[in-house]
Amino acid sequence: MKIVVLDGHTENPGDLSWSGFEALGELTVYDRTPKFDDAEIVRRIGDAGIVITNKTPIRAAALDACPGIRYIGLLSTGTDVCDCAHAAALGIPVSNIPAYSTAAVAQHTIALLLEICSKVGVHSAAVHRGEWQRCEDFCFWEAPLLELSGRTMGIVGFGQIGRATGKIAKALGMRVLAAGSRPTDEGREIGEYVDLDTLLREADVISLHCPLKPETSGLINDKSIAKMRDGVILLNTGRGGLVDEEALARALRSGKVYAAGVDVVSVEPILPENPLLGCDNCFITPHVAWTPATCRRRVMDIAVENAKAYLRGELRNVVNLARKP
C-alpha cells in the first residue's frame, strides 16, 4: 500500500527514522505541504491508501478527490486538522496520538507562568549586560516579581494535560479550579470543579487546555475577559483559536490582563499583523511545547502502531467512529 506523509519535518527534522512506516508500504515523505493549496494536497496524496499528516489540513474536498484513501493517521492529539465527520461518512478511520506529550506540555505551561512571575530571562539578560556589576546594592530588580503560593489557578479543560498542569500548580501552593471537563476522582484530588463563570471570576491565573471546537472557538473574548479579575494572567498551550487575539491584546494593553503566555496562535506560523506581537507583556513561544525528542519519538511509535493496527483490520486510537474497513 502507498503511504504518504504530508508534513514530516516538524515531527522528524532528521533525528528520528521513518523506518517503521517504510516497513508497511511504499513511503513518500514531504517535509512540508502548502496548507491552503487544496490542489497540491490532492496531488501529493494521489492514490495513496494511507495518509499521515500533522498540520496539513485534509478537508472534505480532498477526501472526495482522493478515493484511494483508506486510513488517515494524525501526528497529533488534536483532530481539527481533518474533516473527521466526512471521513467517517466515507468509511475512513482517523487515528490520533493520545497522551504523548502530557508532561512536556504541562511543564511548558508552567515555564511560561514562571517566566511571567519570576522574570528569569529579563534579569539574566540584565546581569549579562553588566547591570549587576554597576549596582550599588547587593540586588536589584527590573520589574516586580510575583509569588504564586496562595493564588488561584483556573484550568479550562481538565483532561490529562490540564490535570498534569494542576498537579504542578498545587505543588507550588496554588488553589486549583477546573472547568470544562467531566469530574473524575483523580481530578477532585487535584482541584475543585466549578462552572466556567466561577473560574473566570475567581482565578488569578487561567490556563487553557480544552480542545478547539465550535463551542470553544473564541472562548476568551471581550465578554469573558470582563468577568475576570483585574490583573489576571492568561496561559494558552492548547489551540490559538480558543482566544480572540484582538480582545486579548486590548486587555493586555489596558492592564486588565497582567500578562499572557502562549505557545499557540490563531494562524501558524504567526502573521506579522498578529496583535499579540505588539504587547510586551505577552510571552510567545512558537508551538514548541510538544517537541522534546522523547515526545516526538512517542508520536512516531504510536503512529506506526496505529497504522499497523489498521492493516490488521483493527481500529486503534480512532477518533471519528468510522466503521471497520
General description of the model:
- This protein is of the alpha/beta class.
- The protein has two domains: 2-100 and 293-311, NAD(P)-binding Rossmann-like Domain (Rossmann fold), CATH 3.40.50.720; 102-284, Rossmann fold (3-Layer(aba) Sandwich).
- It contains twelve helices and twelve strands.
- The protein has helices at residues 19-22, 38-45, 60-65, 84-89, 102-118, 120-128, 160-171, 185-190, 196-202, 222-226, 245-254, 293-311, and strands spanning 2-5, 26-29, 50-53, 71-74, 94-95, 152-156, 175-179, 192-193, 205-208, 232-236, 257-262, 282-284.
- A seven-stranded parallel β-sheet has the order 8-7-6-9-10-11-12, sandwiched between helices. It has a five-stranded parallel β-sheet with strand order 2-1-3-4-5.
- α5 crosses α7 (160-171).
- The protein is globular.
- The model has no long low-confidence stretch (mean pLDDT 96).
Brief summary of the model shown:
The protein has helices spanning about 20, 40-45, 60-65, 85-90, 100-120, 120-130, 160-170, 185-190, 195-200, 220-225, 245-255, 295-310; strands at about 1-5, 25-30, 50-55, 70-75, 95, 150-155, 175-180, 190-195, 205-210, 230-235, 255-260, 280-285. The chain is α/β, with parallel strands linked by helices and about 325 residues long. The strands form 2 sheets. The chain has a 7-stranded parallel beta sheet, sandwiched between helices. The chain has a 5-stranded parallel beta sheet with strand order 2-1-3-4-5.
